[in-house]
Amino acid sequence: MASNSQQSIENNFSGGLKTEFTGLNFPENSCTSASNCVFSIIGDVNRREGFDFQDNYQLNTLTSPSSVAIATYKWNNVGGDGSTQIVVQQVGKMLYFYLSSNSTTTNPLSKQLLATTVDVSTFLATNAILSFDSTIECTFADGNGYLIVFNGQCDPFYVTYNSGTQTVTATRITIQVRDFAGLNDGLALSTRPPTLSAEHNYNLVNQGWGGGWTAISTSTNTIGTGSFTFIVASGLPIGVGSTVTARPNLAGSGAFITGTVTSYSGTTLIFTETSNSGSGTYSSWTISAGSGSSGDTISAWYNVLKSYPANCDVWWYYRNTNVTSNAPSGVFQPSLANTGYILPTNAQAPQGSIIFPAFIQDRTTYSGVPGLTTTSTVARPTNGCFYAGRAWYTGVNASFQATGDAPYSTWTETIYFSQVVQTPDNFSECYQLNDPTSSTLSDLLPTDGGTLIVQGSGPIYKLFPVQNGLLVFAANGIWYITGGQAIGFTANNYSINKISGVQSIGSHSYVNVLGWPVFWNAEGIYEIKPDSGNTPYGQGGFVVQNLCLGTILSYYEAIPLQSKLYARGDYDPISYTIQWLYRSTVESGISNRYTFDSALNINTFKGPFYPYSFTYTSASPYITSILYVNYPQGSTAPDPMFEYLTVYGSQYTFSEEKDSTAWKDWSTAGGPIDYTSSFTTGYKLHGQAWKLWWLGYIYVYSNNSTYEQTAYGIRGLWDYGTSGTSGKWSTQQIITNNIPNFGNVARRIKIRGHGKALQLQFNSVSGYPFNFVGWATWEQINQGP
After folding, report:
1. CA distance 259 to 224
2. Fewer Cβ neighbours under 10 Å: the N or C end of the chain?
3. How far is CA 271 from the centre of its chain?
């Protein structure tokens, strides 16, 4: 049968691994399989280098790695010094610190371990009822020169570094908020009750009314003069010399005894009468602070009106004023409520005078009103960030069922943000500076702290600042927080917009790529970028794209969900490469969760994916974390690169991917372990995919300037054969290149066989690198079937 000849040139492998195409529509410049190869930014293919300890490494004996959480973080701008950088390592409950900015080739990162450590368990939530769980990973954020550490069972804490002594110090952060909710006291807004319940008393104090604590006593006393003894609750804010008032619990009686405290011990309160009203003997009393003067506005109101203020009454409305000049005299005058001059509103009075810890809302302690139910949780923030000059906290996945007088509460969808940070004290101040119940300074300031609720988010796993906004990654989607007019966030001008329903599953896989996030979830690897259309991203104009669609979706789906949850990665801006570490098989538990045997790379410039795999033995090291470390410039500094936290027995060090290992892993210890690098090209067809054809020769070109000698195996795979038993695989040929003085080497190779479709498979030769810049073929094609 007649045939004709044609030439073909392949010189670009920028497509990398692809799994989402058929044998008839496979894209050019791509591979059906790849392992331990690097698809570079210039379009060639190299064998990956071997993994081994750093040159001049040091093994560090730290906390045992057995069955505990392991994590790393790079702390930049340490202490506000842009040239100081620290690598933070978590092993269980302990944090270790490496002064990476001091690293040299002689004294690398593994030799920069600081003497001081931080025990995370010392910051266990103050109301925790359980011991510290060392399997829970910490997350980290840095800003203003500080490092903030988050762990869901501990209060967050900040770390400072003393460059003079090369020591670190950790300090607890107790997040404080204002109470803008109050309690359900069972009263209508405009009801002025004749008796004061603890709940209503609390609401009045929280609305700015003075005085306010109350105690109930069943002691029998007769109104008159002299000394009086009452049995009350212990722990009240009462001191010798303070003024108290006792009123019978009888509606409309108007009777009272006011006196000066002479003794308060345990539950026994004794005071000497200074004034009284009414008569009679009573065995049920309400005792409160003050006498109605000197700031006790609650008592003063009752003394005049024989009722207590309503939830709509604003105390400073009832100050005497000069009607002509409308200038307040500052004298509280409850009788104005009966004149008609001041009409009560039908709206809730401002709340939030009381400030308490966000996760232990002990209203009794912070109001002085006894007997109130505390709303609390042992959970704490699991993640946060620095953004808009503030510290942000979230991920408190907990709720509190309605108990006693405390309402149902949930923290899950709440984000806490501090006041603009001027000193470390601001880290805890997640509330507005001005008292919202004040008659003078009550405004919310742009620099204030506060809380945001992201309705419908579910658990929040990650906060990621992007230029003038903050991305919120949660179980039910992605939200964007920014200023209300597309400007930066302020406490009194912001917007919250949902930009995607893409769900998040954890906080570990996020990688910052030039200011934008790339992350893993259950169904794919997503990147977020600003929309190139007309919608400004400040108003939620983003593109949320699954990078696995049309590329490696089938490959990604085969990774266990638990492995996706704990995958971790970083970005090398020099090679434009993201690399994630993960397990290819389901973990058996915490004991092997961090024994990563795989890596997935993506070149963000050209876009190809390419995977690595690692083989471990019982005697070999294993990799647990990855960080890109850009050492300060200098003639003795190591090159910027990925550094891998490595466990060897019960010790730790750092490893690198480097070419001084005879192209094997762990040549220094526990090895050497050989590994195979290979890739198989896409399907080459002719005509309408039915013509038979065969190769004359293939000319394979390799870069000869980087390596002294390269070697590889090559074979042809015809007609979609999946194994050698198909009879469609040609015999593998081993090619060795050792031709000095030439930048590129071309080898002419005969590939046996024929068929309708051809793939080329390239395999490594033990102990040698390979490189491919392309090939050219001379092909013979039948003119008929």
Report:
1. 11
2. N
3. 55
Quick check: 87 and 629 in contact, CB under 8 A? yes
One-letter amino acid identity for 540?
Answer: G
- pTM for the model stands at 0.87
Spatial contact of 193 and 187, defined as CB atoms under 8 Å apart: yes
Alpha-carbon distance of 391 to 380, in angstroms, equals 15
pLDDT band of 36, cuts 50, 70, 90: very high
The span from the CA of 287 to the CA of 247, in Å, is 6
Pseudo-torsion of CA 751, 754, 756, 758, nearest 10°?
-20
Model confidence at 325, pLDDT cuts 50, 70, 90, reads very low
pLDDT for 270: 96
3-state secondary structure of 258: strand
Nearest to 377 by CA among 332, 409, 419: 409
CA dihedral 7, 11, 16, 20 (to 10 degrees): -30
Instruction: Give, in order, the Cα–Cα distances in Å from 370 to each of 213, 286, 301, 321.
Output: 7, 12, 21, 35
Distances, alpha carbon 513 to alpha carbons 101, 470, 569, 605, in Å? 22, 15, 11, 11
Amino acid at 445: L
* Three-class secondary structure of residue 88 per DSSP: strand
How does strand 16-17 pair with strand 30-35? parallel
Considering only the C-alpha atoms of the chain, give the largest distance between any 2 of them, rounded to a whole number of Å. 129
What is the layout of strands, in order, in the sheet containing 477-482? 460-466, 469-474, 477-482, 495-500
Please give the C-alpha separations between residue 371 and each of 206, 236, 774, in angstroms, as whole numbers: 16, 10, 80
**511, 516, 520, 522 alpha-carbon torsion, rounded to 10°:** 160
Mean predicted confidence (pLDDT) in 509-528 = 97
Q: Where are the strands (E) in 308-456, listed by range?
A: 319-322, 327-332, 355-357, 360-361, 375-376, 383-387, 390-394, 399-400, 409-410, 414-417, 450-453
* Alpha-carbon span 147 to 84, nearest angstrom: 13
**pLDDT over 50 (residue 557):** yes
DSSP 407-429: PPEE-TTEEEEPSPPSSGGGGGB
The C-alpha atoms of residue 136 and residue 79 are separated, in whole angstroms, by: 27
* Burial tier of 539 (Cβ tally within 10 Å: 0-12, 13-18, 19+): middle
Q: Are strands 360-361 and 409-410 parallel, antiparallel or unpaired?
A: unpaired
Asked whether 730 and 715 are in contact (CB, 8 A), the reply is yes
Report the C-alpha gap between 470 and 477 in whole angstroms: 14
Torsion of CA 740, 746, 748, 752, to 10 degrees: 120
Quick check: 387 and 515 in contact, CB under 8 A? no
At residue 510, φ and ψ (nearest 5 deg) are -70, 135
- Which tens digits make up the pLDDT trace of 678-726? 999 999 887 667 778 888 889 999 988 777 788 999 999 999 988 888 8
Q: What is the pLDDT of residues 225-237, one digit of tens each?
A: 999 999 988 877 6
